[in-house]
Amino acid sequence: MAKQIFINLAVKDVQKSMDFYSALGFENNPQFSDDAGKCMVWSENIFVMLLSHEKFSSFATKPIADTQSAVAGLFSLSVDSVDEVNKIVENGLKAGGTEPNEIRDYGFMQQRTLEDFDGHTWEIFFMDMSKFPTDQPAG
């Protein structure tokens, strides 16, 4: 079996969050979804589980972080072009997300940040390795 990643997020409104992630381009896998949790598929090996606070708490031993006021993690998704970065973020903004800062251009990588309703932070980026600086000093 291929290695996979499942990112589990506590959300206040499961259906509203599913609609938001659908707008970003995720697809729902109903086989692993119910009223308290939705499995959202980004790619063959990357999944985001949107879990009600009650369901999330059944897996956790610590309190749920308030991601509206503190960052619990930065989740990054690579895409194939700057246009795709812009499309995903614009769709997320139309679906009710927020963009907490301006686009970042590192020369070889362009990145935009998008937050969902619960404050979960996503970095959507395109990286062109042909523009990656090769004269980096050794650290």
UniProtKB/TrEMBL annotation:
Pfam families recorded: Glyoxalase (PF00903)
InterPro entries named among the record's database cross-references: Glyas_Bleomycin-R_OHBP_Dase, Glyas_Fos-R_dOase_dom, VOC_core
Ranges where the VOC domain occurs: 3-127
Superkingdom in the source lineage: Bacteria
Gene3D superfamilies hit by this protein: 2,3-Dihydroxybiphenyl 1,2-Dioxygenase, domain 1
Name of this chain's protein: VOC family protein
